[in-house]
Amino acid sequence: MPRERKRKTERGTNSAVLRIAYDSFKSGTKKLRQVASEYNVPRESIRRFVSKMDINESHQIGYRAHNRVFTPDQELSLQQYLCTAADSYYGLSPTEVRKLAFQ
């Protein structure tokens, strides 16, 4: 189970602002530099976002777990099974839990 990253600062660009700036740029009425100055977003950030959106419309913005093995549902079911096993006095060692998880 990977750690959940907690932001320490509010740096970066808001995804809603980037989406609005993208729509404004794609409408064709404004150039990239004009959109960047209007929405107060770095020009390179908008350019990078536009190129990624042109490839994949469902592009995610921000940090996400890259080392996640299980889906949240799988993790919950494994957790419930381990709690049930512990309640019935059949506790598993950490090594046994890893073997069970990756079967």
Explain what you see:
With 103 residues, the protein is mainly α. Helices cover 55% and strands 0% of the residues. It has helices spanning 15-26, 32-39, 43-55, 72-87, 94-101.
* Contiguous helical run count: 5
What percent of residues are in strands?
Answer: under 5%
- Structural class computed from helices and strand pairing: mainly alpha
Name the overall outline: elongated
Low-confidence stretches: none
- SSE order in H/E notation? HHHHH
Q: Give the termini separation.
A: 16 Å
Helix content: 55-70%
What number is the mean pLDDT?
Answer: 84
Annotation, overall tally of beta strands: 0
Largest sheet: none
- Please state the CA-atom Rg, rounded to the nearest Å: 22 Å
Please supply descriptive tags for the structure shown above.
5 helices
Topology, element by element:
Elements: H1 15-26, H2 32-39, H3 43-55, H4 72-87, H5 94-101
Helix pairs in contact: 1-2
